[in-house]
């Protein structure tokens, strides 16, 4: 197999769609708490937002499979489920995580700089996108990836 190291996991390029929805739900929960407490408990709210920025960055730049949400899913939920009917390509969800990383990193930066309205807006946008994915399975970041990566006619 060209382009793979001998130790590369063949499943790293694929992801369980149920993990994606679980991850989106967990992310939406964290972002909802941030939106609720950042004004009254700013250090805690910014710490939670910073932790979500780190989770987004890890998934976007390294792997879905070793992320915090994937580890919780693998240990607590996955053993109770049947095998997934299909696996999805991991690149579109990782691109969506990159979008989440950018939104939340900008939100954290604007909160730290005291531009609260921008921080709330960016956090609320990330929360809305995660909630949409968790509740309906519709990943707008994945759709954006597919539009960008669509094969161009030659």
Summarize the structure.
This is DUF4395 domain-containing protein. The radius of gyration is 17 Å and the shape is globular. The protein is mainly alpha-helical.
Description:
This protein has 154 residues and is mainly alpha-helical. It has a two-stranded antiparallel ribbon. Helix 1 packs antiparallel against helix 2, helix 4 packs antiparallel against helix 5 and helix 4 packs across helix 6. It is globular. The N terminus is likely disordered. It comes from Kribbella sp. HUAS MG21. Keywords: Membrane, Transmembrane, Transmembrane helix. This is DUF4395 domain-containing protein.
Give the topology, please.
Elements: E1 14-15, H1 17-37, H2 42-61, H3 68-77, E2 88-89, H4 91-112, H5 116-136, H6 140-149
Antiparallel strand pairs: 1-2
Helix pairs in contact: 1-2, 1-5, 2-4, 4-5, 4-6
Radius of gyration: 17 Å
Spell the H/E element sequence: EHHHEHHH
CA-based shape: globular
- Alpha-carbon distance between the two ends: 27 Å
Structural class, please? mainly alpha
Q: Which strand order do you get reading across the main beta sheet?
A: 1-2
